[in-house]
Design a protein that fits this description.
Elements lengths: L1 H8 L6 H50 L12 E7 L5 E8 L12 E4 L2 E4 L8 E7 L6 E4 L11
Antiparallel strand pairs: 1-2, 2-5, 3-4, 5-6
Length: 155
Amino acid sequence: MNDIKRITKNKKGFTLAELLIVVAIIGVLVAISIPIFTSQLEKSREAVDEANLRSLYAETTAAVLTEDQNATTDIKDATLKVVKGNDNVYTGTATLKLTQQKDGLTSGDSVNIGGVDVKSEDWKKGGTLTITVKSDGTKTTISPATSTTGTGSGN
């Protein structure tokens, strides 16, 4: 009899009910955190797209001002081309394929890049934005490419 009492007194560990409660709590925490994580992930994609567009705008402007027809960009999924027109005006055209997975911006109605407001509806899932800069002082444009199917060209 003493042996049975000793065995039951020294029993250590968790019961099945306690383990199930812990698993349920972890499940609730995961269910709460996944939407928050995906929301933050989309915000980071938009921030990357915005930073890349700003950088590409600066590179395009610099290439046009220096009349560099051999300019290139190291930005992933971006192209840059500068040509000299018959009127001696250099035109820089750059394209950027967006990485965001949802249409529009989560940060507001528009983003100002180089004095140009790029509207939220121009930011499309898998879309492409085109920057046009001219050396004659014509206003810079940033607009969606004609095709937003996600098959834009890149480096």
